[in-house]
Amino acid sequence: MIAENPFVGTWQLLSWKNVDEEGNITYPFGEDAIGYVLYSEDGYMSTNLMTANRPNFETDDVLGGTTEERARAEQTYVAYCGEYEINDNKVIHHIKASLFPNWVGINQERFFEFKDEQLTLSTPLIPIGGKKQRAYLIWKRASLSRPT
Questions:
Q1: Which of the residues 11, 30, 54, 99 could staple to 139 if both were Cys, CB 3.0 to 4.6 A apart?
Q2: What is the pLDDT of residues 54-70, one digit of tens each?
C-alpha cells in the first residue's frame, strides 16, 4: 500500500522569517505576510507570497503601471511553480516558471517538518536581501472562508 502524500493540498502562510548567519531575524514581507503553497497529487506545486496591503497601481491595466509601481510590486511579491519531489527530509521544487527569472529551470530544496497540523519549510543558506540567510516558512492547511 502506498502511503498518502502529506503535502497534497493547499497551505496558508502563518509566518515567514529569515535568519542570517549571525542569528539576526527579519520578516521580509512583514509579520503579516500573505501566502499560499499548493501541492497537487500529480506532482505539481505553486507558491505565492506577498506583503499585506500592497498599494494599487493608478491604472487597472494588468500590463500597465509606471516603472516605479511595477518595481515596488515586484519587490513585495514572490511567485514560482513547477514540479516537486520528496527526498528524505527535503521537498525539491523543480522550478518551471518564476517571478525571479534566475530560478527558472533550477531546483530549490526545502527542508520540511510536519508538526501540530502545520508544515514548516526551511531553506539552506541562500542569498536574500544581499546576505546569506535561511528562510523559515510555517504553513497551516487552508480552509475555505466562503459563507455556507
A1: 11
A2: 999 999 999 999 999 99
